[in-house]
């Protein structure tokens, strides 16, 4: 089986937030640190942080021409406004939230067994990610802290390459960096537009992870699957 898989596939690319690491956990950590600093109610600051997140996501959707680094700065401005703090203070709060994050709470339980399985298959494993509120170096540092970085040999982030998912150029840059033909790359993420749409537009296979669903499905003609547990990815790779 391993030989057949290596012949068919070259690499598996992952989104980070909502796919490998719980984004809501990190946003709650930021809210907690901010509330502690201001000696305010945590629930109030959780609402403020979530509002900033939704507003920043909407900014990206409505302004596709905005560059990743412009979006990074704009999103920090939005967070600072919501928290009634300056950007420097927001940066410090985010940094502390990352430093104090707990691996057993941040990483989804189905992730490490899946990455172990992919490693045994001999596939190249990497990250294709966007940025919002914090630069990619913080995400990479968190992957190291929680013990995931050992699995990844390729990192492609929007603030480094100048393209954000779902732009097909972000995915093609991943394929180029991995030295793989796009049609031999599988991308896994939790967003229909950014991950599935973008990956398919570049010729990748696309897998949507939705842990709230009751079942998984593979649509071979569309080179697409929807899974409710990351460990289902290993079955999908065999059956695509």
Automatic annotation (TrEMBL):
Keywords: Hydrolase. Transmembrane segments: none annotated. Gene3D superfamilies: 1.10.150.400, HAD superfamily/HAD-like (3.40.50.1000). GO terms for molecular function: hydrolase activity. It comes from the Archaea. Belongs to the HAD-like hydrolase superfamily. This is HAD-superfamily hydrolase, subfamily IA, variant 1.
């Amino acid at each position: 089986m391993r030989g057949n898989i290596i012949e068919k596939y070259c690499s598996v690319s992952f989104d980070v937030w909502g796919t490998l690491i719980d984004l809501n956990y990190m946003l709650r950590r930021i809210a907690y640190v901010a509330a502690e600093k201001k000696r305010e109610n945590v629930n109030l600051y959780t609402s403020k942080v979530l509002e900033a997140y939704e507003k920043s996501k909407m900014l990206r959707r409505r302004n596709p021409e905005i560059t990743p680094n412009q979006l990074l700065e704009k999103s920090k401005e939005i967070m600072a406004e919501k928290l009634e703090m300056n950007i420097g203070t927001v940066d410090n709060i985010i940094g502390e939230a990352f430093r104090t994050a707990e691996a057993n709470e941040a990483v989804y339980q189905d992730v490490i067994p899946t990455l172990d399985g992919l490693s045994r298959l001999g596939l190249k494993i990497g990250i294709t990610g966007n940025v919002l509120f914090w630069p990619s170096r913080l995400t990479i540092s968190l992957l190291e802290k929680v013990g995931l970085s050992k699995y990844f040999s390729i990192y492609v982030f929007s603030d480094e390459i100048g393209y954000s998912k779902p732009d097909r150029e972000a995915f093609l840059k991943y394929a180029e960096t991995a030295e793989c033909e796009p049609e031999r790359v599988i991308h896994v993420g939790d967003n229909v537009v950014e991950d599935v749409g973008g990956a398919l537009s570049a010729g990748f296979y696309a897998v949507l992870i939705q842990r709230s669903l009751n079942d998984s499905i593979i649509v071979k003609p569309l080179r697409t699957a929807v899974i409710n547990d990351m460990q289902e990815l290993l079955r999908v790779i065999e059956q695509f």
